[in-house]
Amino acid sequence: MHLFLSFFSLLAGRSTRATNWEVVASPNAGRQANSLSSVADVADDDVWAVGWAFNAQLNAYRTLTEHWDDTRWSLVRSPNATNGYNLLNGVAVVASNDVWAIGQAANGSTYHTNRSESGAGACPGSSFAVSELKPAG
Question: Is the pTM of this model over 0.90?
Answer without folding.
Answer: no
